[in-house]
Amino acid sequence: MNSPWPSFNEDVGDSRSLGNVRVLEWKHLKERCRTLQMENCVWNYMRRWATATLAHFIIVIECLMFVHITLLLTLVKNVYFYELVPYLLVLILMPLVMMVCLKDNHKECYASNMIASWVMAFLLTIMDNFVSISHGGNVVLMPSYDHIVLAAIYLYLPVAFLDRGRPYILGLAVSVVYFCCSCWRLTANKAQLLPTLVCYALYLFYQNLVLALFFTLRVFGVRRLILNRHQLVYEKIVLKMVMKNEKALLESITPAEMDQTLQEDIRTRIEDERQGKKIPKLRKLFVEPHPAVSILVADMVNYTHLTNTLDARSLVEILHELFVNYDRATKRNDAQRIKFLGNAYICVCGIPMYNPDHACSCVDLALDMISITQQVREHWMLNIDLRVGVHSGEVFAGVIGHIKWQYDIWSKDVDITNRLEMWGEPGKVHISNHTLSLLNDEFLYEEGTDSARNDPVLQKAEIYTYLVSSRHPDFMEPCFGLDSNIRGVSLASYRTSYSNIYEEVAKKTKKNMENEVKHMPAGQFIYFCRAPKREGEEPNEDQLLNAHITYGLMKFHSARMECAYMKMPDLLMKYNLVIVLVAAVGVIAMNITVSVSTMFKELLAMLLVLVLICLIGGYKKLWLQFHVTTPMGQPSFCLNRWLIWMSELIEQQTLRVGMPLSIFVILLVFVIATTGVLVCSRAEFEIELIESDVADEEPQMMCFLPWVLTQSVIIVLSLLFFFEALALSFKMGLGLFILSCHLFIIHAHYGFAFERSETINMNLKAEFAHTWYLLAYFIVLSVKQRHSTYINKAIFFTRGRYEKTRKLTEDTTKSIKIIMLNMLPSHVADNFLEIRRNDQLFYENFKNVAVMFASIENYAADRAGIRVLHEFICYFDELLVNFGRKYKIEKIKVMGWTYMAACGLSAEHYTPVRKEESELSSRSNSVRVGSNESSEPSFLMDDDEFVLIMTDFAVHLLRIMNNIQVEDIFYELDLPKSLRGCLKIGIAHGPVKAGVVGHSKPHYYIWGSTVNMASRLTSTGLQGAIQVGESTAQVLRRNNIRCSYRGQSWLEGMSNYPTYVVDLDDTLEFQYNDERSSEQDSEEEQEERTLGGSTGSDC
């Protein structure tokens, strides 16, 4: 199911992603804005842009009117005052009419903005036609500002920036007025009436069409801007969220004080891997001493029966309730949960910060946990209880391992606490005399158990034990209030923390965007506001941008930044090429209408070149209408692939391809527009005009009509709007080049023709009229282009400023993924967050999993011993990389000096869910991953492979231990030879249950008789050997690996059970079966079974 909300690193306005959609890009972005509820932001920003644009428009028109009046006064003799009146009225009335549009209350001014736009458009239109009309048609005068009025409607007036403004209606209305006035003027005074009117109609039509297309593309650009800014705001919110999640995840592994150290180690490790540095022999150890703490070890009574009888869903729900509330009690009593070991819960009071009341807090926590367990027992009607041991002393605390880090504690006092828990009584807290001395007589206690008094470890440490049942009756206990319905509360808190998180982010993003739109650069300060900010005042985005760009051509001061801007892909390039083609067709139509000497073949050839360029530029878009382009679904025909590659090249390679191509096609249209000049015989044309003058006849203009040629150049200049690939300096340069060429034609090469054409004011020379017609339009274009460039550069500059935020978000998200993979198996980490988001508990059943425990022997729990343990665990973790094949080995946890791993915990090997179970689980807040399609899983044929891979991994562990001893890697620690380490390994296989329990500190664990058996096989095993159960030995023997019968071991819930040792030679290679050895092993096994021998630990 696709979310309407983007991921933090999904650039919704990215050129490559937009270039792969089938629909038109502006329709896609419009739908995207509606989905994200950003349409209001789009039009709010458009109204702000309109205010800035309108200010520019007022300045430009006022300047044009002033210059026009000045030209008439200086270039025209005996100018009549009434000819100046319309321009003076525009100077006076326009600011008054437009003032109403500069108000900030846009909602109430919608109607006034529309009215003001129409009034202003028709005011300019009437002004432009007043002089011609005032002469009663006796003199043919051309309009001065028809092109300016149309540009104003689509580019400047508020109607072009309002939702449902429909500027094309106003544009067509003004065009009709201009056309009717031209018909009235030319009817009695023009020999070539019909061709002239047709050309003028085509000119007005194409000006409307080209400018309307620009209006559409501008709205597309604004939507893209809003979506990009939405993405940036979204990223800032997500960054805060992911940093909070990262902190929470790190705190679920380590205390907050160690988070920064661990983060630095992650970054250092990533950087070392990037640079290819070798891993040092001795790795950094994150261990700190804590001299005064209290340790709590709690063990669930009847846990083995619970895990063997309950299904996975019920087991995970019960354990989740217990440990969520244990975690709450831990936090309430100012304790630090260390780890969860299936049936055991270990925490410490007094770390990471010293707590003078650590003993009282720890005993209070123990009593709370016993109360929680009793409530769960009553709610679920289970035969469970809690046995708790508490001891005060010192510990070493830190993180060990290379992957799946675990915060743990080590010391002799930890071993003593384990003994207290082992010999305690259910429902009571078994404490030491050290702890009792710190309790200040606040608790009721009695003598400890007889088993504890007889324990040799406790006797050697001179530990006396006591059982605490409660606080003194007169002690006023703080009313924390345990929940009456623990199950409901734990799941409610679960939902509160993780439900609707995306809806919350979406609401914050929308709210922030409404404020963000008010401060986005719209070009109000493009000409001013360059003064330094006041002391203590934060600079706005306009001020920040103005400090980085030049005032004139809007170039970045940094050449590197300017080059990066010019390399930005131009997604609209294919549409710009189509607009160029449309303009070329219009120019050709205008020239053919009035010219008899046009180069038809040359025009057709140039038109075909433009058609070919358009097809190549838009080929990918055409291909997407019928195909889906994916990395695996590229077209097979080489020509198709080449055309798609060329199409992408035109869009993406702006500097190398887009810019030269833009210049080429614009110049090509200019050549098409001036075809009449190129093919005309200047001498014949001049003679024809002289003869017309002598005969006092209307000149026939055998090559071209001057005003048609000028209007064609206007259309060419309009194309400069569309190409974002061209920098402002290039656009200005190209525009000036085209303008200069045409002015050369007007004043030099064909001056004799232009001086005989119509003018725009009485007694004003026609060539000056053409010049002013062109210059006025070029000025309007330049001002608009400068403003558009300012907006585009503001967008680019802002994205660059936010790039650091995006990178930090990506890095933090990667860090979260790393942390998740260090907390959970890979297949669980991929799905856990989504499951948790849907208020579900994660659990799963496996038909067959190989479980291994590897216990490191002969080390003391001092700092040197912990250093060695850390190195061993890191070596073991690195070995896991070589066992990431089809049946991946997952590290489950490290328990003191014991390493636990499993093989077969992957998505392909879930037990199918029966229909009844599926229906039951669908009504609960849990999830079971499986399939209903098959009653028999297909992986059962591969049971042997789980066992073989795990056994091979165990052999590699033994080889690592042997290599460490041979190479004396720990010589720096100066350890005695007797303390160089050895392993006892136990392996069992069979069905297991698995799941994630815990709220703020989620923990993945596996349960079942298979796990219990593997643990017992390790504790009763031999040093330097692998001990397996009977079923596992049968699998190994079936695969030609020799196993020797050792005897029978007592396992809880199974009584005596046959055990075997995997035979290895001196080089730690497998011993393989032959017929003689198999028969001998069989006879020895039968003899041992008959004698009823049992095994025990020889350590």
How would you classify the quaternary structure? single chain
Report the total helices: 38
Mean pLDDT, as a whole number? Answer: 77
User: How many strand units?
Assistant: 17
Alpha-beta classification:
alpha+beta
Give the overall shape, derived from the CA principal axes. Answer: elongated
- Secondary structure: helix percent: 55-70%
β-strand percent reads 5-15%
State the end-to-end CA separation. Answer: 56 Å
Number of domains: 3
**Rg, Cα atoms, Å:** 42 Å
Low-confidence stretches: 1-5, 477-499, 526-533, 907-941, 1094-1099
Biggest sheet overview = 9 strands, mixed
Explain how this protein is built:
It is a single chain. The protein has 1099 residues and is an alpha+beta fold. It has three domains: 22-234 and 550-807, no CATH class; 287-476, Alpha-Beta Plaits, CATH 3.30.70.1230; 826-907 and 943-1074, Nucleotide cyclase, GGDEF domain (Alpha-Beta Plaits, 2-Layer Sandwich). It contains 38 helices and 17 strands. The strands form two sheets. Strands 9, 10, 11, 12, 13, 14, 15, 16 and 17 form a nine-stranded mixed β-sheet that branches. Strands 1, 2, 3, 4, 5, 6, 7 and 8 form an eight-stranded mixed β-sheet that branches. A hairpin with a 2-residue loop joins strand 10 (889-895) and strand 11. Helix 4 packs antiparallel against helix 5. The longest helix is centred in the N-terminal third of the chain and has 61 residues, at 193-253. The two termini are 56 Å apart. Mean pLDDT is 77; it is low at 1-5, 477-499, 526-533, 907-941 and 1094-1099.
